[in-house]
Structure formats: structure tokens, C-alpha cells
Amino acid sequence: MAAVAARTRAAVRGIGRTPPPPGPFRPGFWRSPIRGPWLTSVFGLVLLIGIPLLFITGLLSYASYNPGLSPLNDETPDKGVLGFYLFSWPTHPYWLYRLLQGVHVTLGVVLVPVVLAKLWSVIPKLFEWPPVRSAAHALERLSLLMLVGGVVFEFVTGILNVQLYYVFPGSFYRLHFYGAWVFIAAFVVHVCLRLGRMGRALRSRGLRAELRTGLAGTVPEPPDPDGLVAAAPAPPTMSRRGAVGMVGAGSLLLLVVTAGQSVGGRLRGTALLAPHNRDPLSGPNGFQVNKTAAAVGVTPALVGPDWRLEVHGSGAPLVFTREQLLSMPQHTAALPIACVEGWSTDDQHWSGLRLADLAALGGLPDAGSVLVESIQPPGPFTRVMLRGNQIRDPRALLALRVNGSALSLDHGYPARVIVPANPGVNNTKWVHRLTFRA
Ligand SMILES: Nc1nc2c(c(=O)[nH]1)N[C@H]1C(S)=C(S)[C@@H](COP(=O)(O)O)O[C@H]1N2
Ligand SMILES: [Mo]
Fold first, then answer.
1. Which of 64, 216, 218, 376 is the most exposed place for a label (fewest CB within 10 A)?
2. Which residues, in sequence order, are CB contacts of 137 under 8 Å at separation 6+?
3. Residue 363 sits in which domain range?
4. How far is the CA of 290 from the centre of ligand 2 (A)?
5. pTM of model > 0.90
């Protein structure tokens, strides 16, 4: 053991004595005169607020699936203690999930320029020479690798998913969820190590003064122990004000071309970068569709006159035709569809049967859960478990109609579930069986 350690130390010393190879490892290679602790800290401060917000909205978003209720709802079944915070997802306020997921996705997109700028500002650190000086230094570099790898991984997987590139090996949710925990661990370590330095760097130059300084007044910061400031700076081609402004403008532009998909209404058309940026049809069913019936193999024959709704509860199963369901007392609720991918619709006016009434018909008025099954051929999103509080909310419906007309085939005809504050994916379409459990 001791011999190995001694040999490693000797090898490290050996590398330390060799001059850096040509290229980015040489001190004179990085020449931007505005790179330095102040600029890094400005971007760092934005991320210090933004990243925890992304993390918290992400964790809440996962909780909204009610993964603790049933393995059916659970996209990360091996999470173990990482699910410590899970709780029963509420149905109030009804727009909770719409807001939460809109913030998560929009904020993620808007922070991209800040993340890139932050990485640019510390890039000389990636090329330190010697690469490893000591065990502590190796540990620090490993944590930075987790930090940079983590941030890139989370942003890339998230953006691929909201852009509907489903190229993941396995489930996106698993990758994004576990990635988030690895990243946040490295983030917390990094913040603990650098917070003091960040505060000092921010105090070293006034923001107001910096925003008044143009190109002519732009001089490098004094040399810093981290080696961010260039050893041989080039003449400035951009002021710090310009750099901060460029990143801010980039974020603002991304906000403008993304947010419309979550805000909806007339703003939807401004979401140039979002896949759900125009309303597909006009008329009562003219709002966003996630998967069309054709795309998932729901044929008109499956939902034709032979379609029946089965309600299972305490006694023998009940079976209803759509006409029978329509002849029962109908209730209405104005609720949005809000997808995990960040897009959502304005409130739509659904009408149909209360889940609570169906539970009572099945002999279980106090049902603790209901298994909702679609007639869609087996695949993702065909089954979900909902909780007692979701059944009992008077706005939770098995909807038969929307905005005054029958549901269209793409929106789940003959019947679909719609529950306040429920993630879109749990509002199952083409329902044919409800199984209430005590
Ligand atoms: N049976 C079934 N239900 C489903 C889906 C599906 O693929 N199959 N997609 C879900 C998802 S991910 C969303 S966002 C909503 C979208 O509903 P909409 O297409 O009516 O807007 O339906 C949900 N219900
Ligand atoms: Mo969705």
C-alpha cells in the first residue's frame, strides 16, 4: 500500500515537472481579457438561484405522478431513499402542475446561455497542468467532472425530451432523475467550496460601474489564484457589459420563443422553438393533442358501438354503453391539459361523470385508489393509478364531452380521465375499465 502511494506520488511529481504540452494547457493559450472571477461569479449567481429552482420543480414534478401509490405510476422503481420526500399529490390549485412544469421546462431552456457562458468563463480550469497535484486536488477535479458532466447531461436530456427526440437508452425519467441527484450533489459541494470566493469576487467590482464601462475602459481583472484571468491577455473585443448583455439577450430570446407553449392562448404562436406551438384544429376539440389515436393503434373499431365501460368495485362489475353514461347526471369542470414536456392548454370545459359518483356506483364511495385502463394496445401511458383525494375532488371526471361537443377520437373518445393538477400523462384517454379499491 505504502509502496503504491510512494510510486503514485513520484509519478505525479514527474508529470508536474514536465512542461505542459502545447495547446490549451499552456498558460498563454487562453487570452480573453474579460475572463476572471467577477464575470464567472455573475453567471454563477444566476445559476445559484436557477439550478435549485430547477431541482425543486423537477422533484415536485416527479412527486406529481404519485409514484409511491403504485409501481404502475413509477418511472424510477429503483430509487430507494431518493424517494424520501414523496407525498400525496394535491388537486388544489387545479393549475398547480401546469405552472410547475411550465416553470421547470421554460427555466431550463432560458438558463442554457448562462450555463454555456459559465462553462466558457472557467474553461482554463479544465486544462490545468499538471492535471493532478495531490489526492485532494484529484478529488476536487473529480467533483468538477461530476458538476460539468451533470449539468451537460441534465440540460441535454431535458431538451431532447421537450423537443420530442426520444433517443434515450431506457426511460428518460430514470436518466433525468438519477442524473439530477448526481448533479445536485456535485453542485452542493461546489457551492460550499466557492461561495466565499464568489461573494468576494462580486464585491470586487460594482455591477453598476461595470454596466457603465464600455470597450475602451475594459481591462483585465488582477491575477487570481484560480488562474481564470489570462496570463497574457489579448486586447478586448467585448466589454464585460457586452458579455453579460449578450447572455441576457440570449436568455430573453429563448424565453420569448419558448414560453408561449405553456402560456397558451394567442401567445402559443410565438413559441417558435416548441413543438406544440400551434393549435391543430379549430372548434371544440381544437387544442393540443399529445399522441393521436392513429399513432398509438386506437382504431375507430375499438371505440365503436361495441365499446363498453367496465366499473369494478366491491360487487359484480358494472358495464355501461356510452349512451347509458350520457343519460346519467353530468358534471362539468374547466381544467387544462399540462404535459411533462412543458406545453399546456388553456382551461377546457369538460363534462361527464364524477369519479366520485362512479366510485359510489361501484360500492366504494371512500375508495382509496382507482386503476384506470385504456383500450389502447398495451404500451406506455395505457394504465395509471389515481389516489383517493383525486377521486373525491368534484372536478375529477370521466369526461365524455369537451367544450360542448363529444370528445374527438384524438382526445380520448369515448371517455377519458381528467383530474385537477394531474400531469397530462395521468389523464388517460380511451378509458374502458375503472377498478376502484378500498
Ligand atoms: N391512453 C393514453 N392516454 C394518454 C396518452 C396516451 O398516449 N395514451 N398520453 C397522455 C399524455 S402524455 C398527455 S400530455 C395527455 C394529452 O392529452 P390530449 O392529447 O388530449 O391533449 O394525454 C395522456 N393520456
Ligand atoms: Mo404528456
1. 216
2. none
3. 293-437
4. 6
5. yes
Asked whether residue 327 falls in the same domain as residue 211, the answer is no
Number of domains in the chain: 2
What is the distance in A from the centroid of ligand 1 to the CA of 362? 25
Q: How far apart are CA 54 and CA 47, in angstroms?
A: 10
| Ligand 2 centroid – CA 376 distance (Å) | 16
Q: Is residue 173 domain-shared with residue 221, that is, in the same domain?
A: yes
Last residue of a domain, one of 270, 304, 321: 270
Per-residue pLDDT tens digits for 272-329: 989 898 877 789 999 999 999 999 999 999 999 999 999 999 999 999 999 999 999 9
- Kindly report the protein residue whose alpha carbon is nearest to atom 23 of ligand 1: 425
3-state DSSP percent of the chain in helix, strand and coil, to 5: 45, 10, 45
Give ion ligand 2 contacts, CB < 5 A: 290, 339, 424-425
Q: What is the pLDDT of residues 89-125, one digit of tens each?
A: 999 999 999 999 999 999 999 999 999 999 999 999 9
Q: How far apart are CA 178 and CA 195, in angstroms?
A: 25
